[in-house]
Amino acid sequence: MTETPPTTPTTAKTDLVSAEEIQARSAWVPELEASLGEVLVGQAELARDLTIALLTGGHVLLEGVPGLAKSLAVSCLARAVDASFSRLQFTPDLLPSDLVGTEVYDARDHTFSVRKGPIFANFVLADEINRAPAKVQSALLEAMQERHVSIGGETHALPRPFLVLATQNPIEQEGTYPLPEAQLDRFALKSVVGYPSAEEEVVILDRMSRTAPTLDVRKVVELDAIERARELVDQVKLDGRLARYIVELVQATRSPRSAGLEDIAPYLQYGASPRATIWLALAARAQAFMEQRGFVVPGDIKAVAPAVLRHRLLTTYEAEAEGVQTDDLTARLLETVPVP
Questions:
Q1: What is the CATH number of domain 30-220?
Q2: pLDDT, tens only, 20-35
Q3: Who contacts 37 (Cβ-Cβ below 8 Å, separation ≥6)?
Q4: What pLDDT digit, counting tens, does each position of 7-20 carry?
Q5: Strand, helix or coil at 256?
Q6: How far apart are CA 331 and CA 134, in angstroms?
Q7: Are 71 and 127 in contact (CB under 8 A)?
Q8: Stretch 68-85: mean pLDDT
Q9: In this structure, which CATH number among 2.60.120.430, 1.10.10.10, 1.10.8.80, 1.20.1250.20 belongs to the domain 1-17+235-340?
Q10: Phi-psi label, residue 132: left if phi above 0, alpha if psi -120 to 50, beta otherwise
Q11: What pTM value is reported for the model?
């Protein structure tokens, strides 16, 4: 059954982007998913989050235990898109200059020249980001937020599009520097990568149990096509009532008792910031675009809410002691806050 867009007196149906235009500009989306699926197995949610990041320009934090193809997913995405890619293995002895670059002195003509670092790429894989010390995290924070870096007192713009795709291991804490809340908030989405099912692992075994496994990823989209798609994502209609619904969801994380969520109030120390409101709207528009719709429906918001909120909710010690996860709290929010 086809869903129809909610309407208000201020929202005319003629304002909607045509289905034909969306279909034309989103033709590469299923091709991208198919290309990633030739290497990745059973990671549909991860592939969706990476595609949303492409469509919105948001950074993604990938969390999961070692061996779940987090780094492989990012490198496959970079190969499927005709774009530049760099991989940084974060370690405790990394310096900011190893990330952004530095000035090099030329003794022949007594001048300094800028040698740009690996941050100057369309896709930057920050592997084990929580192993970087505070100075490196600060340099990365500037790049993520401002889309430029400072070298030798000069500002240098980063390529467009620019995406930081960071990984972290949730079970190993030795030699790590937990990401501050300010930096976590800069990630548009947090994607949790879980274990494959038995059937999926059989497929992984068949593909990878070779001394030289084939990991060919087809290039399916160019940067110009992504930029054109982003322009259309911005035109996807978000009805005023759904915008209010997004605000009420985020407000409920800050004042759960006021939203009738007495049961989860003891588990929430701090709620989500206004960035959560912004990214819920952007990610919902991208989700609608991927479904080839010119309008957002409540299901789009609910689909992206866990990835947008899970790293923005600060839980209490009581939640940790009882094993309550942020995804559990998000599920209660979605169950309780009325849908328009």
A1: 3.40.50.300
A2: 888 888 888 888 888 8
A3: 47
A4: 433 333 446 777 78
A5: coil
A6: 33
A7: yes
A8: 84
A9: 1.10.8.80
A10: beta
A11: 0.86
